[in-house]
Amino acid sequence: MIIRRQRLTLLLLLPFGLLVVPFLIAPAVFGLFASFTNFAPFENALQFVGFKNYLNLLRDDVFRASVRNTLLLVVCTVTLEMLIGFGIAWSLRKPFRGRALTRFVLLIPWLISPIASGLMWHYLFSDLNGILNFWFATIGRQSLIYPLNPGLALLTVILTDVWRKAPFVSFLVLPGLLSILPDQWDQARLDGLRSPGQIRHVALPHLRLLLLTIMLLLIGESLGSFENTLMLTGGGPGIETQTVGLYSFENAFKGFNWTGGTTSVWFIVVTVLVVGGVYLLISRQSVGKQ
Amino acid sequence: MRLKPIEAGRWLIVAAALIISILPIAWTLLASLNVTPNNYSTPPNWSWPPSFDSYIEIGTAEPNFWREMLTSATAAALTTLLAISVAFLAAYSLARTVFRGRKLLVQGCLVLASLPVIAYIIPLWAMLRRLHLHDTLPGLIFSEAALYAPLAVYVLHSYIVQLSPELEAAAQLDGATLLQVLSRIVLPIIAPGVAAIAIIIYVLSWNQLLLPLLITSTQVRTVPVMMSDFFTFERELEWPTAGAALIASLLPVGLFVALSHRLLERFSLVATQDLI
Predict the structure, then answer these.
(1) Residue-wise pLDDT tens digits, B29-80
(2) Distance in Å from the first CA to the final CA of chain B
(3) Could you tell me how many CB contacts below 8 A there are between chain A and chain B?
(4) Distance CA B8, CA B90 (A)
(5) Whether A220 contacts A178, CB under 8 Å
(6) Residue B223 to residues A249, B13, B142, B202: CA-CA distances in angstroms?
């Protein structure tokens, strides 16, 4: 009877499989296969073309710039979001009146969709009614600032992304900080540890898995998402804020260069798999130590 | 009593975070009420008095705006329901059965959850066209639920694995069926966690752009797609109207999250440290 129940329990995986295999895994795997063919949506006779699509990509300056920008974007946004998010959570860990309200307010930027956030910042950076130039005008500066101009655009894309997600990171980190038992803080204090020491020896070991999980999700999101960029700069000026996700989107759905679109995203998939693999290794090690 | 420097630093961080988070939205709210500064004059002068004209203007600029809000709300609700249901069953199965590679499957769910939509949207789009699911509500819901279910499996698994299986075993000895065990014992215990991840998925789905942008066109239209249209058709909207649409689309999720905030507050992405 126990064995029968085990088999029945195993069957509960089926609905998940029926949903995820056709609508997520199969398209992803087919994408890999398609990147070696002359794939196009209405092409019935697929022909194997070897590494031709990949060679074409590597020859494309725009793609190379996209890879560089994407890597820069991922490293900067994820680092800033983790640091700021942790900092805010750390500052909120002792209870005070209005903490619940504070936490709710900090959640609001994340409730705005990336596309709406891009739209909003597009206007907030405008010279006539924008929020940034308002302060410049108030202090009487005549020349206004244009954050979407060459040289500043990528930084602007990074900072607006951090604006939307860093408070959300703090929201996810705080319950972890609060789950640390008071004894552990007391012990650390008795040992003479100040804040940096407490973070290093109490908080980080305890939150290791949570922080790694958040980081992996953030990296995946940063690698692929371009809604914010689409609204703010459209990849410009020039190709200054072009990313791999945007490159694939524009090639496939605007330029109808399907092979370029399907092949370029393999940079994203491979990076996710590599980062995911590193995550598996690190999370295993951390358990071994405990 | 004097404030210690470290305390002062803490308050400074909290205050800065609050101001930076809220100021851009407050600016948008003011603009939606037609209160905007003119930065070309020093000091800038504000347009006054406020009015609700921009909110009425949304209906002219985007005639189907309110219907799109309804579509978004329905699609997000059904997506959440489907994703959570299949994820709950799968998470229970992974927590209570023994087979090789089951831990890898759980961790694989997290890696899958971090795979961005753009990584597989082109083949998915081509497939949905062939299956005649393109531009239909079911096509959208299945695709979105498949996108978010892996995250829910990972989170719910970490909750269920923490529960002691003894209660379930006792119920089984008393003749409870598997479904009864699930609905009367497991679900009630982890209900707060289920509700919290459901709310997160609802918000993610409400804000999802890429899937509905590409796999729907005229029949099914969601709010983020409408927002992206504000620019793509060369019709740059007036800032107050765009601001009004933004505030209007933020209100439903804002209210929803405000009401369920107590639940969300304790939400933990990973419930246990010894998952692996």
Answers:
(1) 999 998 888 888 777 888 888 888 888 888 887 888 888 999 999 999 999 9
(2) 48
(3) 310
(4) 47
(5) no
(6) 20, 34, 18, 14
Lowest mean pLDDT, pick from A31-45, A132-146, B81-95, B240-254: A132-146
Q: Hey, which residues 109-148 in chain B have their CB within 8 Å of chain A?
A: 110-127, 129, 142-143, 145-147
The answer to whether B27 contacts A131, with C-beta atoms less than 8 Å apart, is yes
Q: pTM for this structure?
A: 0.92
Q: Note whether B14 contacts A128, CB cutoff 8 Å.
A: no
Query: Are A222 and A74 spatial neighbours (Cβ–Cβ below 8 Å)?
Result: yes
Q: What is the pLDDT of residue B276?
A: 35
Q: Are A219 and A273 in contact (CB under 8 A)?
A: no
Q: What is the mean pLDDT of residues B247-252?
A: 91
ipTM of the complex, rounded to two decimals: 0.91
Contact yes or no for B171/B184 (Cβ under 8 A): yes
B251 against B228, higher pLDDT: B251
Please identify among residues 162-201 of chain A the ones whose CB lies closer than 8 Å to any CB of chain B: 163, 167, 170-172, 175-176, 179, 195
Judged on CB neighbours under 10 Å (0-12, 13-18, 19+), B19 is exposed
**What angle in degrees, to the nearest 10, is found between the helix axes of B223-232 and B239-259?**
160
- Give strand ranges (E) for chain B: 37-38, 45-46
| Two tokens, residue A254 | 């605007």
Is the peptide bond preceding residue A237 cis, with omega within 30 degrees of 0?
A: yes
Contact A246, B143 (CB under 8 A): no
- Residue type present at position A105: V
pLDDT band at B275 (very low <50, low <70, confident <90, very high): very low
In DSSP terms, which residues pair with B45 in a beta bridge? B38
